[in-house]
Amino acid sequence: MRIVLLGPPGAGKGTQAEILATRLGVAHVATGDLFRREVKRGTPLGRRAAGYMRRGELIPDELVVRMVAQHLTRPAVRRGFALDGFPRTVAQAEALDAALGLRGESIDLVLDFRTPVRVILRRLTGRWICQRCGAIYHAVTMAPNVAGRCDRCPGRLIQRIDDKRSTIVRRLQVYRRDSAPVVRYYARRQLLHSVRGDWQAERLYRHLVRLFRAQGVLAAR
Ligand code: AMP
User: Fold this and answer.
1) For a pocket test of ligand 1, which of 53, 158, 161 has the largest count of ligand atoms closer than 8 A to its C-beta?
2) Helix (H) or strand (E) holding 104
3) Cα-Cα-Cα-Cα dihedral of 198, 200, 206, 211, to 10°?
4) What is the pLDDT, as a whole number, of residue 196?
5) Given this model, what pLDDT does residue 134 score?
6) Is residue 13 annotated as a catalytic residue, yes or no?
7) Per the confidence metrics, is the pTM higher than 0.85?
8) Which end of the chain is more exposed for a tag (fewer CB within 10 A), N or C?
9) What is the distance between the alpha carbons of residues 75 and 80, in angstroms, rounded to a whole number?
């Protein structure tokens, strides 16, 4: 299964990709998480990416494409993946098609998460993530068992520096400018399926399983 999750920040892609990874065994590839790891480690790539991320701007295509292309060659990822946060520009979408095409592979299906802006703002301003494993929580709707601590690992919960209101607004503008054309790119290839990002995660998951079966991406029971 090779699927792409599109949608603005806070649309619910990360939460759903995590569920798909756990239950369907596909690799969850989140470019934001990969870059945050590079920043934390202080690698040359991380140092180049940090400023763009803090401002809510996109990291230049050539840096992103190189990192993703490398990542997709890993054995665990070659068996199937859910791409979360990539592609974010048409150039990235074309590079992805080219990289997969070299191996005779292609994207099976693209999900477009439709989520109202008020839901996005509520989610992102209350979002906490585990510093260690990246698990996502919400102060009100998905609180951890112990405040400030991850339920799954010994990690501490932190708020992302780009989850400030002013940066969220910038990220939404960038999404409309650079990433909305990616939605049209996949619509033209008839791969696009719109889904309700404001649905509760479990309800959306059940819907996706039915969609995947109907589209032949997941074996029928
Ligand atoms: P995310 O966790 O997906 O919200 O990504 C956090 C930040 O990482 C974004 O605001 C960008 O600065 C950067 N980033 C992640 N994925 C990409 C991408 N595909 N292209 C450019 N920048 C990206």
Assistant:
1) 53
2) none
3) 0
4) 98
5) 87
6) yes
7) yes
8) C
9) 9
Q: Which of 2, 13, 36, 123 is catalytic?
A: 13
Q: Is 8 in the pocket of ligand 1 (CB under 6 A)?
A: no
Question: Quick check: is 88 catalytic?
Answer: yes
Side by side, which strands form the sheet with 81-84?
27-30, 81-84, 2-6, 109-114, 192-196
- What's the DSSP call for residue 25? -
- Residue 79, pLDDT score: 82
d(CA 104, CA 99): 9
CA 86/CA 94 separation, integer angstroms: 11
Q: For a pocket test of ligand 1, which of 35, 70, 124 has the largest count of ligand atoms closer than 8 A to its C-beta?
A: 35
Q: Which helix (H) or strand (E) holds 109?
A: strand 109-114
At CA 190, angle to CA 91 and CA 101, rounded to 5? 50
- Which positions of the chain have pLDDT values less than 70? none
